[in-house]
Amino acid sequence: MNSVPIAVCIIVEDLPVPFDRRVWQEARALAAAGYRVSVICRKSGPYRAGRETLDGIEIYRHAIFEASTPAEYLVEYTWALLAQWALALRVYGRTRFRVLHACNPPDTIFLVALFFKLLGVRFIFDHHDLNPELYEAKFGRKGFFYRLVALAERWTFRTADVSVATNESYREIAVRRGHMPPEDVFVVRSCPDLAALPAPHPDARLKRGHRFLVAYLGTMGPQDGINLLLDAVGAIASARDDTMFVLIGGGTEVERLKSMTTAKGLNGVVEFTGRIADDILAAYLSTADVCVAPDPKNAMNDKSTMNKILQYMAYARPVVLFDLTEGRRSAGEAALYARPNDPRDFATQILKLLDSESLRQQLGARGRRRIEESLNWDEEKQHLLAAYARALAVAL
Description:
Blueprint: E1 7-12, H1 21-32, E2 36-42, E3 51-54, E4 57-62, H2 70-95, E5 99-103, H3 110-117, E6 122-127, H4 131-139, H5 144-159, E7 162-165, H6 168-176, E8 185-187, E9 212-217, H7 226-237, E10 243-248, H8 254-263, E11 270-274, H9 278-287, E12 290-293, H10 307-314, E13 319-322, H11 325-331, E14 335-338, H12 343-354, H13 357-373, H14 377-393
Parallel strand pairs: 1-2, 1-5, 2-4, 5-6, 6-7, 7-8, 9-10, 9-12, 10-11, 12-13, 13-14
Antiparallel strand pairs: 3-4
Helix pairs in contact: 1-14, 3-5, 4-5, 7-12, 10-13
């Protein structure tokens, strides 16, 4: 690396930093490799400071609001784009960054990148979500806004010098649908950083007097399958009363899901924690007997890597999920797979694990071994650094 650090600017709109674990891992890996890193993100939750520096990484945050309809998303993304543009100009004035690294959703940040490419800045597209498929999963239809989303994806790939994919399915889409040269697409999986992972510390009190604890971690939106999970919980609760279910995370569907829980008579066995601190999360995951990923099979979920599955495996927890392509690639033999979108079969797989301590231990050990041997951040960050080397070598 040169004596003067190469400056990079990362833009992410979906989550605040450092809460966004993938983006924070990337930022820290780049800083450790000698880059000067700035991040532009939203203000959300406890992350309200407009400007702060953490671990040597300069963070700039802008105000935002949560949308729920296509028209509201258009307003949200337009406002966010203007804020990102203004902050990027501010960062460029301070650092003269040479790489702009944009994380979706949404696929609108290419408009900021187009301007900075005129100044010789390279553009890396960090492909977190399949936005056309995500739109269809959320709203159940195609139409004018769907076409806008698909157009934004095409222009993002067209603008990018390098694309970073979270798995092989996304890499295939970047090459096939995005028409990117294969040598310009790098797979960087969202894997746990074992060195930074809080140590397991089981706490039996989290079971609320029950024998077993089943845990869900993640966002709770229309596409995340929590309604299917609650159907499965209902089937289990009608057969036995020894199991507590905890749902960890936030999202636009939380209040509706709480109402559904009440309507199903499940308040005594289902707990919503909201977003929680890492040490408390570690306690829940190391206490849980089974962890679940109820993402239904659709065009988006089948090709997406669910970060929660890898986090469960890092804590040596057995996993139940619907049978999805990338879900199997992540969990392998560390999970039981239910028939897609069938909550009764999902409940059956959970019960198999609750009824067999040896199977729980066996699957948990397999998952932890997969994380230690291959699916960990020490391995994946090397691919990120290679993507940066490629972007900086690309001739304009």
